[in-house]
Amino acid sequence: MQQIKKITAGISLVLEWKKTGEDYVATLTGGDEHVGAVGVGFYDERSNRASSSVITTPGHRETDIALNGAKAFSKSCKATSVFVVGIHLENITLDEIEEIVSASEEMIIELSTIISTQVSK
Prior knowledge:
The protein is an alpha+beta fold. It has helices at 63-77, 94-119; strands at residues 2-8, 11-20, 23-31, 37-44, 49-56, 81-88. The longest helix has 26 residues, at 94-119.
């Protein structure tokens, strides 16, 4: 399994991924790890577009990260993807939320770059 790590808001975020058959699975976790939201990304070869859907467990707020992560991941790998997100920081502040969301977005962009390079080989 490959991974990207980033320290932000006092926690370590870890983005791991692997190829599963012709598809891909990724997890983005940090703090008290769990499954907060699961995004599924789909890629349409004819239109060269990706779309995604998400399921969020009750009380969790990782919806946007999972939804956007699954879409970006499928667009870059040109396949179906599953993107699981579970990040928890006790007594989190608004500033920490912003830091974590920003770091997550950066990690997803980095993942997309890595995967696009691997797929085009």
